[in-house]
Design goal:
- The chain has about 350 residues and is α+β, with helices and mostly antiparallel strands.
- It is built from twelve helices and six strands.
- A hairpin with a 4-residue loop joins strand 2 and strand 3.
- Helix 1 packs across helix 10 and helix 10 packs antiparallel against helix 11.
Length: about 350
């Protein structure tokens, strides 16, 4: 393997948009961030340019009382038809066991002297991978993730769902820890959790990464699962248009250029990321090693294949304009927005 050094500029392109030092979960639980260049950066670079599937970890909500918790546990266990697995291989089968668990967690919260009216009973987390990933390896990686992250500190249960395109695990963690610690993660914790889940997947032979969207040339946030399901029902003609999507269409229909100012930082950030990748490709091309030069060519192609910088609003505006003109949408423009658009009247 080459000893050709990866420059800091490339590492900056992969840096998450949050400061991992702001992770709220204790260091004993998550481990502190390391200083300096991270080990395995070159291997990560190779995974990125191969477009390795991204591991997803999302907090989908919090339950606020015993009834809410029971309904959530009924949902992830499919009303007791799926086994809920806990720490140390504990298995809960049937609705009676699910109800008992909900009652136990709620009772423990009720005796906490720091309890407030809005104190959550549990945190709901989803760990998922793209379609085609072996669901049982996803389940095993989630099992390892839960044990490493919450084992011995916060009780938890999880269940694998395979009735969706993406194999995913619903992980429910009791908010009140065994030592009275409250589980209240920040965005930085979520990034650490993604990295950890991706590492658990790779340890089980599943290619996975946890890079920020901007490193892949993506500017749009992933569609939330409830919104996606509502949108799919709307497209199929079996439901109403989601409120958030209807609002996006109304905003895009105004077409008054007011979004130009806030789009500029998005363009600037994407330009910096793409320049960092190109600089890395040039450095590798000059290394004199065939493997470095091959990787440099892959990086160059990766940048060329990056998606055009286009927000949801811009995409909808284009769809509306093409529909008005009766044309099929062509490839969206890849240049920066017209910075004078907001001044036109």
């Amino acid at each position: 393997m080459t000893d050709f050094r990866t420059p800091f500029g490339f590492e900056e392109a992969l840096r998450p948009p949050v400061d991992l030092r702001r992770a709220r979960i204790t260091a004993a639980l998550l481990g502190g961030p390391t200083a300096g260049p991270a080990p395995g950066t070159r291997a990560r670079l190779m995974r990125v340019v191969r477009r390795t599937p991204e591991a997803m970890v999302k907090i989908t909500g919090r339950t606020r009382d015993g009834g809410h918790l029971l309904r959530h546990l009924d949902y992830i266990s499919r009303n007791g038809k799926l086994v809920l697995e806990g720490a140390d291989g504990e298995r809960l089968e049937g609705r009676a066991a699910v109800r008992t668990l909900a009652e136990d967690w709620t009772a423990e919260l009720s005796v906490d002297p720091r309890q407030r009216r809005d104190s959550p009973v549990s945190l709901s987390i989803v760990l998922s991978m793209p379609a085609g990933t072996d669901p049982f390896r996803v389940q095993d990686a989630a099992r390892a993730f839960a044990d490493q992250t919450f084992g011995g500190r916060h009780p938890y249960v999880f269940a694998l769902h395979t009735d969706d395109r993406h194999p995913h695990v619903h992980l429910t963690v009791r908010a009140l820890g065994r030592d009275g610690e409250r589980l209240n993660p920040r965005k930085a914790d979520l990034q650490v959790w993604r990295d950890r889940f991706a590492g658990a997947l790779r340890a089980r032979g599943v290619e996975a990464e946890a890079t920020p969207r901007r490193a892949r040339g993506v500017v749009r946030k992933a569609e939330r699962l409830p919104v996606r399901k509502l949108r799919e029902r709307f497209v199929a003609g079996t439901g109403e248009i989601p409120t958030v999507l209807a609002s996006a269409y109304r905003e895009a229909a105004r077409q008054d250029g007011r979004g130009a100012a806030w789009l500029e930082p998005i363009w600037d950030r994407q330009l910096a990321v793409r320049r960092a990748f190109v600089a890395e490709a040039l450095r590798l091309a000059r290394s004199g090693r065939a493997e470095d030069q091959a990787l440099g060519r892959r990086i160059e192609q990766f940048v060329r294949d990056m998606p055009p910088v286009q927000t949801q609003g811009q995409q909808i505006e284009r769809q509306l304009e093409q529909a008005r003109l009766g044309k099929d949408p062509a490839r969206p423009p890849t240049g920066p927005p017209d910075r004078s658009a907001g001044r036109r009247r």
